[in-house]
From TrEMBL:
Pfam families: Pantoate_transf. It is found in: Cytoplasm. It is an enzyme of class 2 (transferase). It comes from Saccharibacillus alkalitolerans. It comes from the Bacteria. Keywords: Cytoplasm, Magnesium, Metal-binding, Pantothenate biosynthesis, Transferase. The keyword Metal-binding applies. This is 3-methyl-2-oxobutanoate hydroxymethyltransferase. The active site is at residue 186. GO terms for molecular function: 3-methyl-2-oxobutanoate hydroxymethyltransferase activity. Pathway: Cofactor biosynthesis; (R)-pantothenate biosynthesis; (R)-pantoate from 3-methyl-2-oxobutanoate: step 1/2. Belongs to the PanB family.
Length: 309
């Protein structure tokens, strides 16, 4: 497909006005980002969910700023024409503004992100304001905030009752006023998410937040069922099952190596005519125990290898 121009915050805002729904997907490396861009997604999120789906952690909490910079940089190389948002990981924006901005700087300069995402409501408003004033776009994130899972009582739907719905509405408005260009609503009751979407002038991007958000985001590995074992989630639809195909492909490879079917004739390279006979005459039919050993040459070779390292 023809190269596209990446979005910016002005275009993203216009998409809400034009009722053009935003598509966002997570990506954590070069190949997944390249595939996502080729598929036409609007935004790529380098989420700290990489802790769960790529690094093997039980939560996002162990993910470090170094992890995020590394994966954001790899993702940016794969999707050079897509707007990329990188997560600020656990406890990197709850201290001093100076420390927060240092982390933001790394994600932008070293990670090559176009924006950062931050979880939280009223408590992060000062940090959001400072980051936006420094010239960096911020994507808010309320509802289920995985970095706070230990304080919100686990992975449960938010905004189900009137009081909690009002809290989320106030948080969304505060983030908008602080300068956020959009807000992710995660695991939020559909009615609450719809009301927030109507009230805000900036886009809402839902994940498990119903049908009325201005856009949707899903995890790459959920979309293509790339996990073992895969855990079904009510708010997720899988659009392909590459996990099973990968497993079956590797099993076939193992079996063919074991039974001698791979490599086959069409996988090998041939030497010039007479090379095999010449080697047999010199080295006794290829018996390694008969190979001549030149101790001096061997020592010299070792020195060369050491120098190259």
């Amino acid at each position: 497909m023809a190269a596209k121009k990446p979005l910016n915050v002005v275009k993203i805002s216009k998409m809400k006005q034009q009722q053009d729904r935003l598509t966002m997907i997570t990506a954590y490396d070069y190949p997944s980002a390249k595939l996502a861009e080729e598929a036409g997604v609007d935004l790529i999120l380098v989420g700290d969910s990489l802790g769960n789906v790529v690094l093997g952690y039980d939560s996002t909490i162990p993910v470090t700023l170094d992890d995020m910079v590394y994966h954001s940089r790899a993702t940016a190389r794969g999707a050079q024409n897509t707007f990329i948002v990188a997560d600020m990981p656990f406890m990197t924006y709850h201290g001093s503004i100076d420390e927060t901005l240092k982390g933001v700087r790394r994600l932008m300069q070293e990670g090559h992100a176009h924006a950062v995402k931050m979880e939280g409501g009223l408590e992060i408003v000062p940090a959001v304001k400072a980051i936006v004033q420094s010239g960096v776009p911020v994507l808010g994130h309320i509802g289920l905030t995985p970095q706070s899972v230990n304080t919100i009582g686990g992975y449960r739907v938010q905004g189900k009752d009137a009081e909690d719905a009002k809290r989320l509405m106030n948080e969304a408005k505060a983030l908008e006023q602080a300068g956020a260009f959009a807000v992710v609503l995660e695991l939020v009751a559909e009615e609450t998410a719809a009301a927030i979407t109507r009230e805000l002038s900036i886009p809402t991007i839902g994940i498990g937040a119903g049908r009325q958000c201005d856009g949707q985001v899903l995890v790459f590995h959920d979309v293509v069922k790339y996990a073992s074992p895969y855990m079904e989630k009510r708010f997720v639809k899988t659009f392909a099952d590459v996990g099973s195909q990968i497993r079956e492909g590797i099993e076939a490879y193992v079996n063919e190596v074991k039974n001698g079917a791979f490599p086959a004739e069409n996988h090998v390279f041939k030497a010039d005519e007479g090379v095999s006979e010449s080697l047999d005459s010199l080295y006794g039919g290829g018996k390694t125990e008969d190979l001549p050993v030149n101790a001096e040459a061997s020592a010299s070779d070792k020195e060369k290898v050491g120098a190259q390292r």
